[in-house]
Structures are given as C-alpha cells and as structure tokens.
Amino acid sequence: MVPPVVADSVRAYYDRRAAEYDEWWTGTGAFATRPRPGWAAEVERLVEVVGALAGPRTLDVACGTGFLTRHLGGAVVGIDQSETMLELARGRCPELELVHGDAVPLRFEDESFDTVFTSHFYGHLEVDERERFLAEARRVGRRLVVVDAALRPDVLPEQWQPRRLNDGSRHAVYKRYFTAAGLSAELGGGEVLHDGRWFVVVATGPGVRTGSSALA
Q: Model confidence over 104-117: pLDDT tens digits?
C-alpha cells in the first residue's frame, strides 16, 4: 500500500491535533454531529476496563493527552513523542511521571514495568514498525495491553485516511481496525478484555490466559 504525499510527519500531525484531540473522546467540536451510536457508553465501559488493570508499575506508550492514562492504577509512567500532547497530559495528570520520547526504541531498561499499555497507537504502525514496537514492549514489560479501534462493516481494515484539522490543515494517516480475535492472534495470543462496537482491548504476555476472554 503506497501512502499519498503528505507535507507533515506523524509527529507534526499529532502536535497540531493535540488541542482538539479530546474532542474525539468526548464527542464535542467536530465530532458533536458525527453519528456514533453507543459511543459515550462504550467510552465509559473502556474507562472501567482500563481502571481494572492490575499492576504496580505501568508504562503508557503514546499516552497523548492522558485521557486514559489517568485511569491506570499503581505507579504510571506516560511517554509520547509529542511535547504538545504531553503539556495537556501534565495539566490533567500532574501526579504522574510523563516523558517526552519515542516508542521505538523505548528508553527504559529491561523488565522496568509489569504492564506496557497503549491506546490507539498500535493500529497506526506499519508492518516493520509493529514488529519493532512489540519487541520493545516485551523487553521492558511482562504484560502488554493494547486498546484499539474495532473493525466495523462500514470501514476497511487497513487504509490511509484523509484528515482535516480544525486549523484547516489536511493530512493522511495510516489506520487499521481490528476484531478482538484478530488482534489477539496478531499479538501471539492473549486475553480479550473488551470486544465492542468501537473499541477492542487485548492483554498478552506471561500469566495472561491466552485465547480466553474476561468479558462478563
């Protein structure tokens, strides 16, 4: 798949999107009139799932504005490549350690964390990037928890999406959508923590019940 020509890098795109990023979560701004049946209720459920993750020390990779980061339990470190995103996260989560840095390679020593958590980051990675990220996540943490976008009948599982920000700038972003079973298989087997219309959550790693589901 060949991407269209874009003027800005992914890093620049998220720097420019930072101020409006939470509109996507909260259904405000440009998303106020977008039809997303059940979205708000599922976001609430996702927050519950994230809040129930057990582990004394967690790394949130690509933590963004900290929308989900703040709900993680225990000692939490958030890392993001966008300093603009981190400025917003610091205002929301002043008690957390937030680090400016890349996801590959991660700047932490082996087995520094019990859990590596990431939300809506894995689905933006192309093949070689996925392999490198998974190797890094498994190096620094025992368990990996991935939150990403659920595959729906109205979307292609893999695409380059045209996006327009509130400032009028236009960008192209690589995006994938997953079934819970498909994501679990891609991660090498794992436990499905949530399988919804809008989000899927899968945990994988030592001690995780591979091929199982924690859904009530």
A: 999 999 999 999 99
Tokens 């967690």 correspond to 58
Q: Summarize pLDDT for 144-197 with one digit per residue, the tens.
A: 999 999 999 999 999 999 999 999 999 999 999 999 999 999 999 999 999 999
Q: Is residue 105 reached through a cis peptide bond, with omega within 30 degrees of 0 on the bond before it? A: yes
Residue 76 token pair: 């939490």
Contact 94, 123 (CB under 8 A): no
Alpha helices in the chain (DSSP H): 10-17, 22-26, 39-51, 83-92, 127-140, 180-186
- The residue among 152, 160, 159 whose CA lies nearest residue 178 is 152
What pLDDT is recorded for position 207? 63
- Its pTM stands at 0.93
- Per-residue pLDDT tens digits for 34-51: 999 999 999 999 999 999
* H helix or E strand, kind and range, residue 69: none
By the 10 Å C-beta count (0-12 exposed, 13-18 middle, 19+ buried), 35 is classed as exposed
Beta carbons within 8 Å of 213's beta carbon, 6+ residues apart: 191, 192, 195
From residue 205, how far is each of 6, 89, 129 by CA, in Å? 36, 28, 19
Structure tokens, 42 = 């599922």
Residues in the chain: 216
